[in-house]
Amino acid sequence: MKNLLLFLFVIFSIALYSQETEEFEKVSNKGKMYILWGWNRGQFSDSDIHFKGSNYNFTLRDVKARDKVNNFTFRDYFNPGRVTIPQTNFRIGYFFKENYTVSIGVDHMKYVMHNFQTVKIDGEINAGTPFDGTYLNEDILLTHDFLTFEHTDGLNYVNVEVNRFDNLNRFLNLTSKDFEVNITEGIGAGILYPKTNAKLFDGERYDDFHVSGYGVSAKVGLNLTFFKYFFLQSDFKIGYINMDDIRITLNEEDSASQNFTFFERTIMFGARFQLIK
Fold first, then answer.
1. How far apart are CA 52 and CA 245, in angstroms?
2. 159 band by pLDDT with thresholds 50, 70 and 90
3. Pick the residue with more confidence: 28 or 27?
4. What's the start-to-end Cα distance of the chain, in Å?
5. Do 206 and 249 contact (CB within 8 A), yes or no?
6. Is 213 helix (H, G, I), strand (E, B) or coil?
């Protein structure tokens, strides 16, 4: 990480120095494609989670959750066979106009419910467990015997975005043709395709992919492009997720539903190249 920061500092210094001797050169974007890869951190609002099945129907109120960050290792973050271990982002896009792009990608976030938190519960359980009963706004401790609930492989937001892309070099009085500062902002929408790791009432664990709902989002980002083709980009994204059909057991009659907002921060690297002139 220190070496990377040193490299970026040197590149940035060269770009600033070169602006004194080079005239501003406008870089054309229309017809270019780009591809990017990177990593994210996520934060999630509290949410009500509704569980229903043949012998239970209850809601947990204001459940707290977090993301799941892996310690940095080259094996986990750069090995193609382990790309889903960290929280990752992949996107491919196209400049259909000089300042506008359309792209498709996957935000591979991870959502982990905090166990051993106390929440309110409403509803009925009649499943032959120690938790059977009728609840009306009562406290319950979310032990592992009661519930494990995670979207850890992951909270996959498969989405399409339309973004605006603006070069700030002239505004910042940067005249180097080898360094660009760009700002991008946009909106997106897509489906949620999580692999939910769930275990209810200490029963059999369920862990499979399933289309569970939809999401919408908006973002703003900073893009630093080097030598016209390679770039680093960081985005701040907010969004809303509604999953009304989450599989939690092998029985298709059993399901969960929840909706919440999220805030995502990313760091990504990529390249853009001319496809159509």
1. 11
2. very high
3. 28
4. 37
5. yes
6. strand
